[in-house]
Amino acid sequence: MTREAFPALFRGADGSATTAARWVPHSHRVRNWDHRLFRQVAARHWPGGDRVLPTLSRAADRGALWFAVAAGIAATRRPTARRTALRGVASLALASATVNTLGKGAVRRARPLLDGVPMMRRLHAQPVTTSFPSGHAASAAAFTTGVALESRRWGAAVAPLAAAIAFSRVYTGVHYPGDVLAGAALGVGAAFAVRGLAPTRDQLPAPARPIADAPALRGGKGLVMVANAASGQRTAEPAPGARETAPEPDGAAALRAALPDAEVVLCDPRSDDLTALFEDAAARAKAAGGALGVLGGDGTINAAARTALRHRLPLAVLPGGTRNHFAYDLGIETVEDACRAVAAGEAVAVDLGRFTPGSRSARGAGYFLNTFSLGSYPELVRMRERWAPRIGAWPAGVLAAMRVLRTAGPVQAGLGGRQRPMWQLFVGNCSYRGIGLTPVRRHDLADGLLDVRVVPGGRWPRSRLLTAALTSVVGRSPVHSTARLRRLRITDIPAGTHLAFDGEVAEAPRELLIDKHHEALTVYRPMDRGPY
Predict the structure, then answer these.
(1) Can you tell me the mean pLDDT for 141-149?
(2) What number of other Cβ atoms are within 10 A of residue 345's Cβ?
(3) Are strands 347-357 and 366-368 parallel, antiparallel or unpaired?
(4) H/E run at residue 166
(5) Does domain 371-501 have CATH number 3.30.230?
(6) Which DSSP string do the residues of 73-140 spell out, in sequence order?
(7) CATH 3.40.50.10330 occupies which residues in the chain?
(8) Which of 99, 120, 355, 421 is the most exposed place for a label (fewest CB within 10 A)?
(9) In Å, what is the CA distance from 198 to each residue of 135, 208, 325, 424?
(10) Please, are residues 226 and 278 in contact by the beta-carbon 8 Å criterion?
(11) Residue closest to 291 by CA, chosen among 263, 254, 325
């Protein structure tokens, strides 16, 4: 469009010609502003910037700095921290892919001229791609926004670094301010897109059904907490003749800080009578009108649950073990989560799995909060747990399966009214979600169902076990089958067969009935997610 071709468009209402500045297209005004701001940044002296900002800018090449930050966050080993790091990296990956495939090709803007940028600020290796949008700014904004959506605290800690990275791209002369702003907007959008695909913890409904009555123990008064000092500890064997001692678990100090009036009893099951300790703690808690608490792994929590059930006491569960399956499925990931629920009196009713020798009578019954298994699986778990600290969980599981292949065979037992060979029988308390022979998450702890998974014998029995260990296929599969049941009867179990429940191993009776004690146990659980 030119003045000569369309003169009427360049005249005012009175027919007089307009000024050129009045009719400069809007995009030209933005470009002029962009160039002017770039020159102002280049001309100004920024104390300390020459030493820090170019280094930061280079460190963020290809996302290296953010991967290091994510590793540092995940190294805290808190479940929320691991989710935070994963979400940040996923958001960064989406933003980078969008910038490189769409952004750079759609707007082929040239890089700024470096004439006005001091030599000491310039990068040694100048980028060769187009200028719009800034990939570094997109990655910084995407990572920080993704982290903040999962954890406000980590987001606040990372935000200053992201801002410095974004500004460094203008400071070193490789981008205009508009490139940085566009990249940052794209990065924020990528983080929200990831959240749309994978909701954050705050977006997921809490497993808080059904709500149960429990006393609000402000300051922890009336709470008697048994803390297993050996939970989560993987220490070397003590020297002969030496008395083995275990340090106080980390959660005990956090408990005392959050609930100073709570009574904490330290125990070590390698030397103490755990059943007697829980019985004594439950008696004192009931006399005070309070609750029984437990800090430990799933085996310790199982013992506490049986005691709380007998005394009809609410149970406060603090994660202190290696895996903490029950606490995490309940929504309790930190000691602070549990303490907040105890102080507010927020609790839910949960199911207990029950296995009874011979008949449906509850006399002599055992209980499981997480899983029950029969056959070669107890031996596989024992080996995996012994090797996992040295080589990792997945390699340990494969090696344990291969060891069982050589030394064990299928168990011949009655299941579903007929005899069948089974390599493994897995029974979960409530329905597990996700794939795998033994998936590890539940969203409803009071659904009244047993999650039954079987690896049968049949043809190629050893290949079936190895395939299940390697691939963890599910559903209608030749490798293993699944079912959701309310009860399961197992008959004609061979003598010497072992069963496992919540990490404990025992010899199986001749006949077993496995069913549910529906909504039997009251457990503290915060109704809100809490700050993180």
Answers:
(1) 94
(2) 15
(3) antiparallel
(4) helix 152-171
(5) no
(6) HHTT--HHHHHHHHHHHHHHHHHHHHIIIIIHHH--PPPPP-TTS-GGGS-SS---S--SS-HHHHHH
(7) 215-232+249-351
(8) 120
(9) 23, 21, 21, 33
(10) yes
(11) 263
The answer to pTM > 0.90 is no
Q: What is the pLDDT of residues 331-354, one digit of tens each?
A: 888 888 899 999 999 999 999 999
**What tokens were used for 252?**
């005990």
Cβ–Cβ under 8 Å, residues 530 and 447: no
Looking at the chain, which residues constitute the CATH 2.60.200 domain(s)?
371-501
Domain 215-232+249-351, CATH among 1.10.8.60, 3.40.50.1370, 2.70.70.10, 3.40.50.10330: 3.40.50.10330
238: confidence class by pLDDT, cuts 50, 70, 90: very low
- Structure token pair of residue 383: 């080996």
Residue 327 above 80 pLDDT?
Answer: yes
For residue 21, what pLDDT is reported?
44
Q: Give the pLDDT score at 164.
A: 92
Q: What is the pLDDT of residue 477?
A: 41
One-letter amino acid at 169 equals R
pLDDT tens by residue, 244-269: 445 666 677 888 888 999 998 888 76
- Say which amino acid occupies 33: W
Per-residue confidence at 225, pLDDT binned at 50, 70, 90? very high
**Helix 64-74 and helix 49-59: axis angle, to 10°?**
80
Residue 200 CA to residue 196 CA, distance in Å, equals: 9
